[in-house]
Amino acid sequence: MAPCDPGDPASPLVPAGRDHLLRFAPNPPAGIAWDVAELTDGNGDPVGPLDSSDIGPRHWCLMARAIAQAYDSHDGFVILHGTDTMAYTGSALSFLLDNLAKPVVLTGSQRPISAKDGDAAANFGNALAIAGHRATGLPLVPEVVICFGDVLLRANRATKVSTTAARGFDSPNYPRLGRLGGRIDIDRSLVLSPPERAFSAHAILSGTVAVVSLYPGVTGADLGRMLDLDGVDGYVLRSFGSGNAPTDRGVIAAIAGATAAGKVIVNITQCLEGGVEMGLYQAGHGLLEAGVVDGGRLTVEAALAKLTWLLATGSAESARSRMPIPLRGEM
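Structure (tokenized):
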């Protein structure tokens, strides 16, 4: 990011391009050869630079395609990304990149790369070191990760936890893969094992998934309208506590009506830690009977990405059966 008015450091921040990045980028760790490629569309035309608030499924597919095209000629990949939707992108790429055997490291910063004493240069340097593991001697991390502040996190377990702190992301339901600082320490026992099959990438996401949050006072009529959006094939339902919902008959009827109409609804908790245990309380049993899928400890980012990918690559029934199954270390 950079001030929209170069003469006014206090002006609103806008996405910065390749030249601005290279002007302030840190020197890479010794032995790492790297290049910078801008995201392009199917015609080879540049896409962006983009604020992360504008990044969605189309861009996830373009990133997956770009990685696939450069996969054989590179040891690893660093994606520079705004923080607001970084965990969504990281989660999506973890599903789009099948049998990934190389590091894909997302990073960004809480302050612009041009800011004095900012966090961008350190985050970028750490990400390069992890992606360039052959040169740095660090352990191979064959998965999509977020490198930010002093932690390395599995991307589909991560969520943004602060708009200001240097440690802007955390992984409440899974241990941190590594510690960053004066040195980089990676816990090999927590990292996914290299795959035995050949790498491939999915570059198409069809259908739409929406996120709906329950709130005190929600009515069946309100929820029915939310669960009947045109073109939406699935929903991530953010419920209370360990997967609970109002026991009001209208609310349960609205949810049951949506699942009967073929919508896939996945239940996740609104809490930062813990997960869904549908049926543990009577208030959650109604969702189970209404045909809602237990999302376990999925983050909202991972749930959205996983359901979108499953609906794009298979039937609704297949998505229902595969959502509770760990596929990329996401649960």
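The chain has two domains: 2-201, 208-322. The first helix runs from residue 18 to 24.
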